[in-house]
Design goal:
The structure holds two protein chains of two kinds.
Chain A (H helix, E strand, L loop, with lengths): L2 H8 L2 H12 L14 H13 L3 H11 L3 H42 L5 E3 L2 H4 L13 E5 L4 H8 L7 E5 L9 H7 L1 E5 L2 E5 L2 H14 L5 H13 L6 H5 L3 H16 L17 H13 L5 H6 L4 H9 L5 H9 L10 H22 L9 E4 L2
Chain B lengths: L9 E5 L3 E6 L4 E6 H8 L7 H12 L5 H13 L12 H16 L7 E4 L4 H6 L37 E2 H4 L12 E5 L2 E4 L1
Antiparallel strand pairs in B: 1-2, 2-3, 3-4, 5-7, 6-7
Chain lengths: 374, 194
């Protein structure tokens, strides 16, 4: 791609999305492939990469491409310094994060609760370096009948934000018993942590990404990393077993992982499903447009309300179209007008949820513990 | 002097070309370049500055440069990575050292560098928005740097703000919290910072 075209693309939301995809393609590999990029394009997407937690991956991709980091910084200046800082921050955070996970799991096991760790570290451990994927909160799943004991065990000062789930989210067509039976123990320092089996882990990543409208490129990288790490005995039938609509969304995400940040992805053992064109377009637009600002955030910052309305109004927020289609029960291949989908989603999903929360508010816990599915 | 590196309450991660250190007492992150890291690692309370100069010269294959070691020790001391801060130089010595360092830099020597990394404390991260979805286009990363509960010690998590629960008491260790507050009103393994 020529430099002039690169410059033009960098200032268009879809173009920025393309640059993000280009930077992240293969960035999770130990030796990422070369990338062609101008300093202007990089400058335009650094805030997007940072906000999406992909700063470390971007640094890794750019660091290994050129011979010397000094030359990199001479050419790309402040952008690379910023990416390098993200990488350093994420590396330090990862070390502490692992210690926090061990502490939390130990607390739960002390009261006879065996948790399953999902997302976060269960994806980060597949990357070649700890600093490539940011460490944020800890998602722990327990069976519904063990939830009160788990809450009691965690109801004292926590080392980090914890999301405690009754059952495993995004896998409604799998029972807790079956998930537990297929789960694995992975070493973490001097102890071990239970994570989902490969088939369930990949399905969870795909459906979680689809539910959130594929808005975060880092999550798609998680899918690509997982695909590259699948064992030889991976059971695609098991992966696809369950709700047919959810399976079609999961296959759609896998197809996307191969098309966007997946040029270096090894092929799976199944033929790649067709990817509906509107999804790829929506993803690129949303990656280039930046993260969506939640409504609650706007209400605390009245000056952001008008820009947010503009963002929705001129259709840049295309990730919600994916999320809405997923939420209301559409197949990825269905071309329902976005307005209709969003209206259906509001009437049948968001409004009942809002009413339920107003009538039955969630208990406020004194510690950074969020309950899901209780 | 015989500088000694601080080891307690530090999380250290070595990268190929630099060393990252997180100070759990002060909730600050630091990045040491290769020269600074080499000096820090060899500050064992037995090596003098001359010894350190010799070590750096041997490992890097460069002529001995005591000003580099002195600068490294000063930077490490300023960031509380040494057990005892080094004595400060008189102003006349500082000027001549500055000139010497400039000459070394021009001669191609790599100067030691200890850079602080902007981080967020665990308390600030937990009291902020959820980290699962970013809600801002700001380039600042919301890094929730947590307290390490390593297997060898039961150091308390840092106290948060006045009026919040005192983690030190909950961990079985009472007394002055790292942020200067004290645990008061301890009951049922929980206290309040005051």
């Amino acid at each position: 791609m020529t430099g002039a075209r690169d410059e033009g693309l960098a200032y268009d939301a879809r173009g920025r999305g393309e640059v993000v995809a280009r930077i992240l393609a293969g960035s999770w590999l130990r030796q990422p492939p070369p990338v062609v990029l101008t300093a202007a394009a990089l400058d335009a997407v650094v805030p997007l990469l940072a906000a999406g937690g992909a700063g470390g991956l971007a640094w890794h991709r750019l660091r290994n491409v050129l011979q010397s980091p000094d030359r990199l910084q001479t050419q790309f200046g402040p952008a690379c310094r910023e990416l390098r800082q993200h990488y350093r921050q994420q590396t330090l955070a990862a070390v502490d994060h692992e210690a926090a996970i061990r502490d939390l799991v130990q607390r739960l096991r002390a009261v006879g609760v065996e948790p399953i760790l999902i997302k976060g570290w269960s994806s980060a451990r597949l990357y070649p370096e700890p600093g490539l994927r940011p460490a944020s909160d800890v998602d722990l799943c327990v069976s519904a009948d063990q939830l009160p004991a788990a809450v009691a065990a965690l109801s004292r000062p926590l080392p980090c934000q914890v999301d405690l789930h009754a059952g495993v989210p995004d896998l409604p067509d799998r029972s807790w018993r079956s998930l537990l039976s297929r789960s694995r123990l992975e070493p973490l320092g001097r102890s071990d942590v239970r994570v989902l089996g490969w088939e369930d882990h990949l399905r969870l990543l795909c459906l979680h990404l689809a539910r959130h409208g594929m808005v975060r490129p880092l999550w798609l990288c998680d899918v690509a990393v997982c695909l590259g790490a699948l064992p030889a005995h991976f059971d695609w039938d098991l992966f696809e077993r369950g709700n047919a609509r959810l399976t079609s969304w999961a296959r759609c995400v896998i197809a996307l992982a191969g098309r966007l940040p997946g040029e270096s992805n090894p092929p799976s053992t199944r033929p790649a499903p067709d990817l509906p064109p509107w999804i790829e377009e929506a993803v690129l637009w949303s990656w280039g447009g930046g993260p969506r600002m939640p409504l609650g955030h706007c209400l605390r910052r009245p000056g952001q309300i008008i820009p947010r309305l503009r963002f929705h109004g001129i259709g840049l927020n295309r990730s919600t179209r994916i999320a809405a289609a997923f939420d209301v029960g559409c197949e990825p291949t269905q071309s329902v007008p976005p307005g209709v989908v969003r209206l259906l989603r509001f009437l049948f999903r968001k409004l009942p949820r809002l009413v339920r929360r107003l009538v039955f508010p969630r208990p406020r816990l004194p510690f950074p513990l969020t309950l899901h599915g209780s | 002097m015989l500088p000694r590196a601080r080891r307690e309450q530090l999380t250290v991660h070595e990268l190929p070309d630099e060393t990252l250190v997180y100070d759990r007492n002060r909730h600050k992150g630091h990045c040491l370049n290769s020269i600074a890291a080499l000096v820090w690692k060899n500050c064992n309370g037995e090596n003098s500055e001359e010894d350190l100069t010799r070590i750096v010269a041997t490992r890097t294959g460069t002529p001995p440069a005591p000003e580099l070691v002195r600068l490294a020790i000063e930077q490490l001391g300023r960031r509380n990575l040494l057990e005892e801060p080094p004595p400060s130089l008189p102003s006349s010595d500082r000027v001549s050292r500055r000139i010497a360092l400039k000459k070394l830099a021009l001669a191609g020597f790599v100067l030691p560098l200890v850079m602080s990394i902007a981080t967020k404390t665990a308390a600030q991260s937990m009291s902020g928005a959820s980290s699962s979805s970013s809600s801002s286009n700001s380039p600042n990363v919301n890094v929730n740097l947590t307290v390490v509960q390593d297997g060898n010690s039961s150091h308390p998590a840092p106290c948060r703000n006045r009026g919040q629960s005192c983690v030190a008491a909950a961990s079985g260790l009472q007394g002055t919290c790292c942020s200067g507050l004290a645990c008061k009103g301890v009951s049922q393994n929980a206290g309040v910072c005051g």
